[in-house]
């Protein structure tokens, strides 16, 4: 008879596979729609079928993502820091408007200094850092190549029909592998998804979040992220 941990692992793997397969389906139908547009000749029935498949798969994936973000409390975390984030952003733009680039740089450096202890939590998750940073770098390189090839009349179809989908498919395979490894090491699917989603979200906040130093519940780092050293990325304990 399977142990509880084995059943949990199987359940997490099932969630992981369904999530990634749905995302793969969405990417494939969008890829086919682009090539249908480039080549033409599929007829009204083909266009209608692709449109219907795109709608159904996209809605199904978005509903699943919404459920995941409710279950792992990512949505709750987002709304908790939303007002503070907006106020910090307004302050950043005000400083930039009146003091220019120098003022903006000082604001960002101050925010990173104030939140340095919270940023250290990231280093407990090197695989996730690699995925997030690698994803941004890879996407930037592909977009640069698209811009380069898009001006060439002999290779523009590669820039339009193939390269835009390369990051999506590569990052999906990378994501699938990362989530599977984490599950096999004992982390739940929901916990892994929470870390992946909160890492870029909180990093963006820490770039401008000077007001976490203010001892007011709406802004203070302790009320938003917990006491110093608290792992706010991990799933909260019930």
Query: Gyration radius, to the nearest Å?
Result: 21 Å
**Tally of separate helices:** 9
Please estimate the helix content: over 70%
Any idea how many domains?
1
Transmembrane segments: 21-42, 48-67, 74-92, 98-116, 128-150, 156-177, 198-216
Keywords: Membrane, Transmembrane, Transmembrane helix
Describe the structure.
This protein is mainly alpha-helical and 238 residues long. The chain has one domain. Helix content is 77%, strand content 0%. It has nine helices and no strands. It has helices spanning 4-39, 43-71, 74-114, 116-119, 126-149, 156-161, 166-184, 189-208, 221-225. Helix 1 runs antiparallel to helix 2, helix 3 (74-114) crosses helix 8 (189-208) and helix 5 (126-149) packs antiparallel against helix 7. The relative contact order is 0.14. The model has no long low-confidence stretch (mean pLDDT 88).
